Structures
1.
Amino acid sequence: MLNDYKGWTGSADELAGVLATLAPAYVPEVEPPSLRVVRDWRNKGIFSQPKQKPYGYRQVLEGVAALWWLSKKGWQSKVIVETLSALQDSDLVDFIKRMNLDDSGVAAAPVRDTRRQVRDANVAIELLARGIVRQYQYTVLGRHGIVRQTQPLGENGGIHKDLRLAMSKLSRLQVECRGEDHCACVHDVLSMAKAPVSSEGWGIDLVDQTDFEHKDIVLVDPVHSTPTRECQDLALMAAGGEIDLIEGRLHDQLRAIVGRSVLSPAEVYTAVRGFICRNPLVNLSVANAFMSRSGMNGLYKAFRDFYEELHEGMLIGGMAHKCVHCGALMRPRRGYPDGVCSVEPCFRSNPAKVGERLDPVRDKLFVAVPAVMAYWVTPAYDEIRIHDAAKAMGYVAELYPDEDACDVGINGQAVGIDAKNYASPTRLAKKLNGSIGRLRNYDTRIIAVSDHLVASRRDYVGVVRSELLKKGEPSTLRVMSVSDVIAWLRREVRNG
Ligand SMILES: [Zn+2]
């Protein structure tokens, strides 16, 4: 039927007539556009022919598709104009033939300009990463005092401009993919960012596109609501290196303590960070006992940078539940009478179980601040597992040796291990290709990936290996799961 109009030309009035003929077949139960509407669509650019020129076959196709998008999908005319501009006549014919086959709009996929969308999606996610990090630095860390404000509060009610720009780009993509927009509210965007970009909630149907580089990334830590490490990496890359890394600030804060101590800096660094990671939930009396040990008193002054008083909303039956596996606070959650451990790799691999019930009335209770939970305590679950297992096997093992040259050092410079919990294996490989850091000081260099990530995605380790550079320092890395690292250490012991 559409073919009958190839070569057709006519006036606005005649086009309205053609569309009235075609509409019942392609867009049933919808009022076809009147002459006034046809003129309006031309003013809005939905009809693309130059002014003063007659309407043609192209406008017939544009009219049918636009009518469908407006009535079935509720698209705004701006989106329709942009979408049409990316489509050839043959794409449009193909789309019109398929548009009613699948009401979810998925049928529109073959004619979408997916290459442009993938490009837009990658840019939008990079902007979003940068916006999220900046917003976090301003609103949260600014208050905690770990990080001073680095970005002046923008207009638009304090939402960073990168975040705004990313939201509008994502809105457009979502509308193009599904005909609906979930990016109107910054809180919705931030909660969406707690799941991988490829997940359903994002509404971006580009998962099968290999060029969609950022599809596996998780930008916001689902438990602590901080930007993830991979989010920071991406932000750093997108910003050309000018951003102050949150984690770098924590590190500096700790180095300041180290500088004030009578002990060797490396010793104090390991002791203080080890204490915080093993005591993410702590009694004031336990903390005081640690801080009064020789060389550790620097922590008194900085204690509030790393810990905050436990909020009573986190209590269960008036008590704070301490996880039996890792010592972190178990947060209240529906369906879990004892709560759930706030360390992700712990609750993903262990049953929820209380070790101790602490009474905040008897002794003041403190928990590590969200940034410390996300960047130190959570990865420490794997680091401590490896460290403690190695020690039990008779190795000389050390956490954060030489002020954090790596996460776990074994037998001096023989083996260096960094534990990583990036949701995206591609992002992890990129990060390592950029620099392997001071892991280069070790003879054997190991990247240990959290077990739950490897379990949830079988090719995780394979993807990292295949994307690591084949020469230079990245090529010397051994990538394995945490359990495999421990098994490897055990074999090495046996082989002497
Ligand atoms: Zn735990």
2.
Amino acid sequence: MDAVVVEAEAADVANTYKGQCLCGAVSFEAIDLSDIWYCHCKQCQKLTGHYIAAAGVTRENLTIHGDVNWLPISDRSKSGHCRACGSYMFWDEAARDTVSILAGSLNDAAGLEVKGHIFIEEKGSYYEITDDLPQYKGFPSQGTRGEGIQ
Ligand SMILES: [Zn+2]
Ligand SMILES: [Zn+2]
């Protein structure tokens, strides 16, 4: 076995992504983070001013340090922001096994790919999607981690 293969395996085992808000009061570690999806839904637009890039992590693989201000988005979901600086980092829907992490809050997203666009039916009229990634009108039926819609 050559050294390059060994290095790649070591990186897979680590697979821990760290992130934090703008001011640093909230930080987190996410193990086995999924790849990134762009979400163009109206909710994401209202929350951030644009579409979002987010990855998913199962709840047991997410460790959060600091004081997160969880705000209700609907009766099903909530958004998590730093109480000090307001950075939007987490989207959590109780019915789902995973929490979404806004990609921009990751300190280093190396190794994550962007898989596609979701909720393009709700996208803003002021921009076009110009890449060749797959596009879905809503949430992909196979899920964003291959988990399907429950
Ligand atoms: Zn902060
Ligand atoms: Zn969205």
